[in-house]
Write a structure and sequence with these properties.
By secondary structure, the chain is mainly alpha-helical. Helix content is 54%, strand content 7%. Helix 7 packs across helix 8.
């Protein structure tokens, strides 16, 4: 019981690091710095420095897993429908039928909707990461769709080794692929709701 009382007394005697002269109301949940009631009301029990700090970068492992989930979500429904169609119609034209690509189109529309709302595709949402602009503001859908996704895929169609070069950029300290540099984006950990 005395440990609790000592901790409470130390908080009551502490001063706010941002506003000298104001007594501390809480300690920052991230860095432990004492903050006054004004700073604490700014958001989620964080001091002003932590509240405005850049979000933490996503891990390489999370980015890879999100890419695999997105790829599986795009390819598996069409592949499954194609196999069923081939079993029903044993003909070469079965895989060329436009109906085989309908699930992929549906997945792309769902992904675009998710990206527009949260800056994160299905895989990124599952792994708790999202795409933001270099300045930390939410990335626009056109920036993500065209510069991060369509342009690299089109270039990889002409020059396959470009995909490897793109992925190797992730090894750098800033954990940004080549398409992140082109689009001016970063992948960061998403705040938990």
């Amino acid at each position: 019981m005395s440990d609790f009382r000592e901790a409470l007394e130390s908080i009551l005697e502490a001063q706010c690091s941002e506003h000298p002269g104001f007594s501390a109301a809480i300690a920052c949940a991230r860095c432990g710095t004492f903050t006054c009631a004004f700073c604490a009301s700014s958001g989620a029990g964080l001091c002003l420095r932590c509240l405005h700090a850049a979000p933490e970068l996503a891990t390489r492992r999370a980015r890879l897993a999100a890419c695999l989930v997105d790829g599986a979500a795009l390819l598996l429904p069409s592949l499954f429908l194609g196999v069923l169609r081939c079993l029903a119609i044993p003909d070469e034209a079965a895989m060329k039928a436009p109906v085989v690509y309908a699930p992929a189109l549906l997945v792309l529309l769902v992904q675009a909707s998710l990206i527009r709302g949260t800056g994160a595709s299905l895989g990124k949402r599952l792994l708790g990461i999202r795409v933001v602009r270099g300045d930390g503001l939410p990335a626009e859908v056109w920036r993500i769709a065209l510069l991060r996704n369509a342009l690299p895929m089109a270039l990889c169609g002409y020059c396959v080794w470009l995909g490897l070069v793109d992925a190797l950029f992730l090894v750098g300290e800033e954990r940004r692929c080549l398409h992140d540099w082109v689009a001016g984006t970063r992948v960061v950990k998403a705040p938990r709701a």
